[in-house]
Design goal:
transferase, PKF_sf, two-stranded antiparallel sheet, alpha+beta, monosaccharide binding, 154 residues, magnesium, two-stranded antiparallel ribbon, identical protein binding
Length: 154
């Protein structure tokens, strides 16, 4: 929270990381509350966020112990920069180098989406007029204003 401590403000942390980064990495102010959509976070969201935060700090502590030698940190392996998140119902750390291979940067989406093969069933549940003999590919179709039409079923 921006107001959790009178001295450790968002601005202070930004200045600290910017100064200590010495040009090796960039910083920017990004308050999560400004990014949230859908109203106030639920107790589940807060609890889950706390758990992920704890796991992230423990992971960083372990990594620092692994790469700290003779007063210096040698964090130059592929797994020194990771993103925490769910992968198949398990909290996992994914190296950024691996995520780069499976990400569609233009559309800011994963290249392969597991739920695309469920579209036929979703259309059936939504009472769409569908043909059960027609195969619907699992490729992502990016919607633009030009492709929207009632004749094509949106």
């Amino acid at each position: 929270n921006e107001k959790c401590h009178e001295h450790y403000t968002t601005e202070f942390l930004y200045n600290l990381y910017s100064s200590e980064g010495k040009g090796i990495f960039d910083c920017r102010i990004n308050v999560l509350g400004h990014l949230q959509q859908g109203g106030a976070p639920t107790p589940f969201d807060r609890n889950y966020g706390t758990k992920l935060g704890v796991k992230a700090v423990l992971w960083m502590s372990e990594k620092l112990q692994e790469v700290y030698r003779k007063g210096r940190v040698f964090a130059n392996s592929g797994d020194s920069a990771c993103v925490i998140g769910l992968r198949k119902k398990v909290v996992a750390f994914s190296p950024v180098t691996e995520l780069k291979k499976v990400t569609d940067f233009e559309h800011r989406l994963p290249q392969e989406q597991w739920w695309l093969n469920l579209r036929l069933m979703l259309k059936m549940l939504a009472n769409y007029q569908i043909s059960l003999t027609e195969y619907i590919s699992g490729k992502m179709e990016h919607v633009t204003r030009r492709t929207l039409s009632i004749e094509k079923g949106f």
